[in-house]
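name: query_chain
kind: protein
chains: 1
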Amino acid sequence: MRKLIILFLFAQLNVQAQEIIEEARMSGPRVFLFAEDFYSRAQIKVKEGAYLLKGYNKDSTYVRQYGPDDVHPLYTFRAELMINRTEFDSITFYSNDTIVLRVLRGGEWTEERPYIGELTLRNNLIYIDAIARCSMEDYLAGAVEAEGGLTGRGSYLQAQAVLARTWLMSNEKKHIKDGFHVKDDQSSQAFKGVAHGAYADEVMKAVLSVQDTVALHDGRPIMGFYHSNSGGQTLLPQEVWSQALPYCRKVVDPFSLKGSKVNWTQTHTWEEWNGYWTRSYVDFSKDEWGQFFQNLPSDRLSHWTFGEEKHKLETVRRALKWRSTFVQCEATEVGVIVTGKGFGHGVGMAQQGAMHMAASGFTWQEILDFYFKDLTYDLVNNP
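structure:
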């Protein structure tokens, strides 16, 4: 097939277009967007300012520049990625202003998410892949906001930013063969676009104040675990998963007891309860369960023991959708009442506890040193 080059800019505009690319904030990681599920339609709009649009395939190149005073169209793409009746393998937007993206999933459009810098759509068989790249600061602020930045408490936000940057340092090459560094869901760390909530300015201020700071143990970046609320007692990683880590500590955490997610109750019918435990080869009567519950200590446990078999409560939590594993249970005629404290796996920093530490005047280093041990802090360069 005859090669066709479609260029919509003169040489002078190409210089201006290159300036847009160079000025776009793109020093951070490439992030795979809406990673939790597939989608085959996407909508993009640049809200204001100048931007550059490029489309590529093996036979053609499309280049279009919009100035700040131009009318900015709304682009709707299917998996074929068509522009002006030409199909492209990938399409990239470059802008220093906000680019909003939403995707069609399950017959409904998702909420819009804002990005700044570079946003690429690429064909993936019958689906679309979207990948964003912004500055390191914009990425970290977005991650901090998505993972628990809906507060203006500065030293907590700083602690969360250090953990986010440390996590990225350890995981930035995980998906490099796929053309991006990280995903935007909790298989990496949540990122719902650049920070745009009520405390976005405070989040960015906190990120900039600890810019490129990472937490280390013996010179290596830690796995900076965190969860919502410990219920007053954290756990060690080997109690929840399998690997012991020397910098994780088990602490009594009075700060989490002041959090909004500390107390909860959940009820299971006997059919539901026995359905799970029978599959786990535990076959108790109502009375036997009642006696078992009465014999349990009131401390936070990592597992329940039946004979010689140990069952990790983290596995039970996920299966029965408990908020945490810090539980007391009561057997009744109609089922099991589970009374719990905390929210999440219980390892590392408790976010609500850290928020209350920040409100009490603790620094971000003091917060991290409370939940972890033997840490040092250093600066790293962007990837």
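note: The chain has a mean pLDDT of 91.
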